[in-house]
Design brief:
7-stranded mixed beta sheet, two-stranded antiparallel ribbon, Rossmann fold, alpha/beta, binds S-adenosylmethionine, 302 residues
Length: 302
């Protein structure tokens, strides 16, 4: 590659062609090699991912090209997700700091946070939110940014993850209304909320063994949840009603455990929210429904 007068566009084309030569997994913040090359190019050129109208024709300095080459080589050699190599991820239109203490944020919930979960949630009734299993805080912090009058608590069992979360809360200057709680699911959560958001671990042991190398850099406790992937979800569904206000709801990502959950709760009419990509792995359930179906939900185990 001729590194003289290289534009962002030229660099992105080169990076995509290099990434495409090898067997890499995408899905930790990018869709494919092209998408990842654009993200990487925007990072080295120091503009926001997506802001290509301004950034596309920028000419890169020699140092920027060197950094970009090193990142491409490193990504290929280690298969480490790009987010960890550059300590950033874009989620629901906002940038977050990430490192290997937390899962790389990619929850489906990001698709709906930007619209405050309408029509499932009435924004005027939401003044308190819990992000349970918060990791680096992308869901709860994004919720605080879109529900700009709500107080938001973020809970996780991992202290290292909560350190990253706190860093992100401070970066967005949200310390007045956003707080972390160190808690094993609801054990140390003492409040009730209008909205609980949760992207828990939901990978079954069998699926965990099949995941590509990229996932091996993520904390195992952020992914694995028992034989069917339902261990955390079962406890959450069983205890959630106690932590919701009267008209409150839980929005829960079940991911690859969605079919097992659907089968285990076949007597319960679960309301799956369909994503733009056609996936139905996030469910919305009200406090009333959690109480109405509690006997059936209890069969999931505690
Ligand atoms: C799938 S990750 C989601 C992280 C973040 N919400 C996101 O979407 O990027 C699951 C999170 O649950 C946390 N976790 C695992 N077991 C937990 C437990 N028993 N209580 C609270 N958090 C737990 C992990 O530390 C991890 O941060």
């Amino acid at each position: 590659m001729n590194t003289e007068n290289l534009s962002v566009e030229d660099f992105a084309a080169w990076a995509a062609s290099e990434l495409e030569k090898v067997d890499l997994y995408y899905g930790h913040g990018s869709q494919d090699a092209q998408d990842e090359a654009l993200w990487l190019a925007s990072f080295i050129a120091d503009f926001d991912y997506g802001d290509f109208e301004d950034g596309w024709n920028k000419v890169l300095t020699a140092d920027q090209v060197k950094l970009g080459r090193e990142l491409v080589e490193n990504r290929i050699k280690t298969k480490k997700p790009l987010a960890y190599l550059i300590n950033q991820i874009w989620f629901a239109g906002h940038r977050f700091y990430v490192d290997e203490r937390v899962l790389v944020p990619r929850s489906h919930l990001g698709e709906w946070i930007v619209d405050c979960f309408e029509p499932w949630v009435n924004i005027s009734r939401v003044s308190s939110i819990l992000d349970l299993c918060c990791g680096g805080g992308s869901i709860g912090i994004s919720a605080a940014l879109y529900f700009d009058n709500a107080d938001v608590d973020l809970a996780d069992l991992s202290k290292p993850a909560l350190e990253v979360c706190q860093h992100n809360i401070e970066a967005y200057e949200l310390t007045q209304r956003v707080k972390t709680i160190h808690s094993d699911l609801f054990n140390n959560v003492h409040n009730c909320y209008d909205l609980i958001l949760c992207n828990p671990p939901y990978v079954s042991h069998v699926n965990m063994a099949k995941l590509p190398q990229e996932y091996r850099y993520e904390p195992e406790m952020a992914l694995v949840a028992g034989v069917e992937g339902l261990d955390s979800i079962a406890t959450i569904l069983n205890h959630c009603a106690q932590h919701l206000n009267d008209s409150g709801s839980l929005i829960l990502e079940a991911g690859t455990a969605a079919p097992a959950l659907e089968a285990a709760l076949d007597q319960v009419p679960l309301n799956w929210m369909m994503s733009a990509s056609g996936e139905s792995v996030v469910l919305v359930i009200s406090r009333e429904e959690l109480i109405e179906y509690q006997t059936k939900i209890a069969k999931l185990g505690l």
